[in-house]
Amino acid sequence: MQSFDDTFLGLCGAQADYGRAACAVLPIPYDATTSYATGTREGPRAIIAASQQVELYDADLRRESHRCGIATLAPIEPDARGPAEMNERIFRAARRVVRDGKFLLALGGEHSVTSALVRAALTRHKRLSVLQIDAHADLRDSYQGSPYSHACVMRRVHDLGVPAVGVGIRSYCSEEARFIRKHDKPLFSARDCREENWIDAALEPLTDTVYVTIDIDGFDPAYAPGTGTPEPGGLDWFQVCDLLSALTRSKR
Fold first, then answer.
1. How many CA atoms lie within 13 A of 217 on its CB side?
2. Helix segments in the chain, DSSP class H
3. Contact, 75 vs 99, CB < 8 A?
4. Is residue 102 domain-shared with residue 150, that is, in the same domain?
5. Number of structural domains, the chain?
6. For residue 40, what are the contacts with CB-CB under 8 A and spacing of at least 6?
7. What domain range is 111 assigned to?
8. E strands within 4-69?
9. What 3-state DSSP class applies to 19?
10. Same domain, 183 and 149
C-alpha cells in the first residue's frame, strides 16, 4: 500500500485508489538523453513532494478537484538498453492507463518521454493533436546519435501523423527551421505571446482532442532557473494558466 509520502497531493485511501480514480499520475524519472545540465530524473519525486504542500481547494476553479480521485502509479524504471527500449516501456505503461479511461498526468523526466505518451493516447483518441509549451522546437531528426533524444521528440510526434502547435518556442537549429517552413508548422514564440488574441490563434489549428506537453524551459528562466536547457525570455505563469484555461473551454 502506498503511503502519504509517495502520492500526488498526499492522497490516500479511496481518493487515491486506481480503480475509482478519474486521473492517474505516472512518474517517469528519466534523463538518459539530456545534453546539458542533468537531474530531470529527480523531477517526478520533487513534484510529488511539493504537491503535498498545496491547498486542495483550487481558488480559480472554486472546487476541490482531487475529489474525482487521483491515483499515483509506481515510477517507470529506466531501461538500461537504450532510449528506443525506454520509449516502448513508457508506451506500454501509458497505454494501460489510457485504455482504462483515466486522465493521464505523466511527470518527467526529460522531454523525450512525450512521443511514447502521445502514441499511447492515439490508441484511444484517433483525432488527436498536441499543444507543446516549450523553449525549443525539438524537431531534429536525430541528436547525438539517437532519434529518441529530447531534441527530437516533436519530430517523432510528427511522424505519428499528429498535428501540433508549439508555444513559447525561441530556439531551433537550421535543420529545424527548414522543416518548420516545409511543413508549415504553427509555432508561437514567447514574443508572439505578448500580442493581442495570441491564445485564440494558438488554439485554432488544434483538433477537438488535445494532448498537452509542457517542457519546463517554456517558462522564463526567472520562474524555473534550475531547468537543464534555459533560454532567455519565455512565458510567465499567468500566460500558461490563461492558455490552458482557454483550451479547456474550447477543447477536451
1. 22
2. 43-51, 83-99, 114-122, 153-159, 174-183, 198-203, 237-250
3. no
4. no
5. 2
6. 30, 31, 34, 108, 109, 110, 228
7. 1-124
8. 23-28
9. coil
10. yes
Please, which contacts does 4-7 make with residues 24 or more away whose CB atoms are closer than 8 Å? 4/52, 5/52, 6/48, 6/72, 7/48, 7/72
- From 63, 89, 124, give the residue that closes a domain: 124
Same domain, 200 and 221: yes
Q: 150 with 190, same domain?
A: yes
C-alpha distance across the termini of the chain, in Å: 33
Give the CATH number, domain containing residue 87. 3.40.800.10
Return the residue matching grid coordinates 511539493.
50
**Contacts with 232 (C-beta within 8 Å, 6 or more apart), sequence order:** 170, 221
Per-residue pLDDT of the chain (252 residues; tens, 9 = 90+): 454 469 999 999 999 999 999 999 999 999 988 888 788 899 999 999 999 999 999 998 899 999 999 999 999 999 889 899 999 999 999 999 999 999 999 999 899 999 999 999 999 999 999 999 999 999 999 999 999 999 999 999 999 999 999 999 999 999 999 999 999 999 999 999 999 999 999 999 999 999 999 999 999 999 999 888 899 999 999 999 999 999 999 988
Nearest to 86 by CA among 128, 152, 149: 149
Counting every residue, how long is the chain?
252
Q: Tell which of 124, 156, 173 closes a domain.
A: 124
Look at residues 45, 55, 32, 54 and name the one whose alpha carbon lies nearest to residue 6: 45
Which residue in this structure is represented by grid cell 502520492? 7
Q: Retrieve residue 104's grid coordinates.
A: 493521464
